[in-house]
Amino acid sequence: MLASEVPLSERQHMLPHEGHIDGHNTGEVVHTTTTVIRKNVDGKEGDPDNKGKFISVIRPLLVELIGTCFFVLIGLFGVCSAGPGVVAAAFAFGLALMVFAASFGHISGVHFNPSVTLGVLLAGEVQPVMAVLYFVMQLLGGIAAGGIAKMLLRDGVYARCRGGATVLSTYVAFNHTLPDNNIVFYTEDTVKWWEGILIELLVTFVFITIILMVALDTKSKTGLAPVLIGFTLVACILAAGAFTGGSLNPARSLGPAIFANEWKDHYVYWVGPLAGAAIAGCFYRFIWAHSDRRIPRRIK
């Protein structure tokens, strides 16, 4: 069949309407019929935006791959900038996520983070196979971002910020004078591995919970979700940045670790965020969710 031909089964007849022939005053009524021709650009029946592997699989995966790369890269530039403390990093990551979520959220959900995908999976909003593919795309995007940062940043800048890698903080030694004039000496110390895991777990739990409530829940989801999610990420990085670097995201930590060769305590940035996301997803599914999404579902 030629591309211009339309099968008769696709011709939908609307209700006939009456009219008079111009130039005649015979009183004869002429019945005319309007034919609507439906063309399906995807070659399948139904709405083309909901059919086909490209729309349902490939396009979301491309958003997760390319989006994660740019999201992490923007954040790494913030980490390695001359901004004060973790402020530049927090706002670089948070504002980037806000804009990406508003622009591409309708395509993939803009997870850009295996922790987010795990939380959404446990909340019942994504299929397991698609979640695994999201994981792969996000990790590849994070690795690509780490490589681009290594290529673009000058050696001195890159070395100073360790390529944007997340590491547990070291507290410098200092003296503290008490009100009774006694002096307490504090030696150099570092954040312990279990402290790092708990800090990452807690902030990721908060972050994932907010995402599930404002973006997915039947009752509380809102059009302001991108703004709320972006500023939640800013707050979480500001809170945890001085202690762990505020990762909340294994994909964000993996790329810089590879290219800067910073592997010390790297497992903290997998265990903490993924555990926090798992707990948040379970809390949502069993406690926070509206009755139509909560387990057990309310039987009417």
TrEMBL record:
Cellular location(s): Cell membrane
Annotated keywords: Cell membrane, Membrane, Transmembrane, Transmembrane helix, Transport
Membrane-crossing ranges are: 57-79, 86-107, 127-145, 157-174, 194-216, 223-247, 267-288
* Keyword flag Membrane: yes
Q: Which Gene3D superfamilies match?
A: Glycerol uptake facilitator protein
* Pfam families from the UniProt entry: MIP
Its record classes its membrane topology as: Multi-pass membrane protein
Q: Which GO terms describe its molecular function?
A: water channel activity
In terms of superkingdom, the source organism counts as Eukaryota
A GO CC annotation given for this chain: plasma membrane
Query: What family does the Swiss-Prot or TrEMBL record give for this protein?
Result: Belongs to the MIP/aquaporin (TC 1.A.8) family.
Task: Return the protein name.
Answer: Aquaporin
- Organism of origin: Didymodactylos carnosus
Q: Give the source lineage, highest ranks first.
A: Eukaryota, Metazoa, Spiralia, Gnathifera, Rotifera
